[in-house]
Amino acid sequence: MEHADLSPPDSGKVFFSAKATRVRRTIFFGCVLLFNIAASLWLADLFWRMGLQKAHFPLLAIFILLNGLLTLGSFHAIFGAIDMLLGVRRAARVTKLADGRSGPLGKRHAVVMPVYNEDSTRTCARIEAIYRSIEATGHLESFDFFILSDTRDLDLWVMEETAWTNLCRKLDGFGRIYYRRRRTNENRKAGNIGDFVRTWGGGYEAMLVLDADSLMDGADIVKLARVMETYPRLGILQTPPKLIRGSSVFTRLQQFAMRLYGPVFIRGLNFWQLGGGSYWGHNALIRLKPFSEFCELPALPGREPFGGRILSHDFVEAALMVAEGWEVWLAWDIEGTYEEAPPTLVDHLIRDRRWCQGNLQHLWLIFARKLPFSVRMHLFMGIMAYLGSPLWFLFLVLGTWIAWDRSTSELSRLPFESHVDRLFGLNGIEQSIILTCFIFALLFLPKILSMLRAIFVPQIRRSFGGIIRIVTGVTFESIVSILLAPCIMAAHTLMVISILLGRAVGWGNQNRETDGTTWGDAIRFHLFPTILGIVWTVVALNIDLTFTGWISPILLGLVLSAPVSVWTSRVRYGLKLAKHGILSIPEERDPPSVMVLAQEAKGAIDPALDAAGDDRHGVIAAVVDPYVNGVHVSLLENLELRQNEEALAERCLTKGPGDLSKNELSELLYLGPAMLLMHRAVWLRPADSIHPIWTQAVQSYRRRLYQTTDAS
Fold it and tell me: Is 465 strand, coil or helix?
């Protein structure tokens, strides 16, 4: 296919004009710039009034950056609230292209779920729920489903195969639900998706990319597909997922904040990005032809962490799509899209370490030629999400140094003429208080706007449990967030430093279920912020009590890092909050149908085909159990067994799987004839000629037979 064929079609009306887009972006970023300039000049005048020192110049430079980020975030909420007040009719909503349209879809679409060392019964339960939800719309014939495994745990690999087989049998899904495990998992998730695109992508118009914890309503998926078919210029259609199933205090805080505050931020983001949006890596529909042509990511120059494969591939893939003229939209009005959050602060920060490295890699790309403005802004915001923490830390350190220097120098304060004093008649204390109030207004205005929206819109108010629960939840979330922020700042600062020192991150599986962080783990993980907070408190007290009072929220958050981390990780406290309706979300009070389907889904579980037994677990079941062995072998290539491979199988039989390295055992599991040979051997050979692990597994069948006979 020629390059010209993959350019976005020129024919047909553009959904949102380039002129209107420029006007919106000029208004939005113009307001952000003006407010940041005003606050920065106000602080510069205050420094001048105090008597400028050399440390004031870097402090002012950092303030300009940090206040710019804060203003940018707050104005997303402000413009989002304005957009809501103007009403849906005046909002930019790409999904309205599908309004009033019905009938069968014209193209075929794929639903793809990459997995890596996940609980196969739970991932299959989500696939089952999405499958049944789409089936209820009457459009199931237009969709195929793919479970794309990069699992390295060999036992989990076997359990994925049995769960998938049970699911297909339950749903009659053979030929519609597919499972594939990559032999080599090159380039992580991006490589997994890329392998699917190269192998199967030509048969589909678009793919819906999910995470292992993703859940989406079938009617919304059909609507996304209809928008994609209706608007040929659309390359990616991203949905805003909601967090669900939170049980610990930490996850309940996250899902409450995202559910209550998220809509105004999303509307504000959509206000200016329009067709130059971003891709968040999951819960998005992607047109396959331009994605295949333009979004294969090259390796960056040099070695990891800054070089090598791009970890945060999603932002870059959207950037490449937009740079080639395709539109990337945020479907802000799609409600039925969900995901789960890490259960503890420690798990959250471990995941952030990977994202931090990926986002900092974008420093290579942000100044690349021919990138549109919206693309550079998304890359910039992603980078500053992590660079902002060390900048904030440096700002606080410089501020402490200036305060220490002033308290120990014993120099008299010379009066300097202040422009603010001349214009407004304010003294230095009043000027400082006004700037502080401005900063706090920027911090808390998004929460206030979101809370007011929830209170004054009856449907939203009822869905959160009423005014008292909303106000209580916002107050509680704000207090805990203030305590968590310094700890996260310290952790992000260490992340950035470690990356600058050349320490790359590995690719670990995400912890989705836990009953809390132990005190030992918390103390080890939060040792740096705790010691930093204690030392900083001593320094602050030696300056004066006024300065200590100003910086006390930071110091308190650092010193209490470990206790707050442990407390927020506890499920029992989260359940107590839920019992009283605090931090509850609408999906808990009135679960959507697709969530109910996922909770009730049992298609992946069948005692007749099970690789999770005590004595025949995973790899053992693949050898011993006739049904599991049959499923596993049926998914392998039928190759002739070579002599060295037969010797490997014999060694596994006589010395047990523990005698083989992981690579040897993995290679053996890919040999269909060897797996059949071993299966026959464990059942036919005398017990003293094979390893006890096999005989114990065989004996477990006899025990089950006796138990069944006794029960009858």
Answer: coil
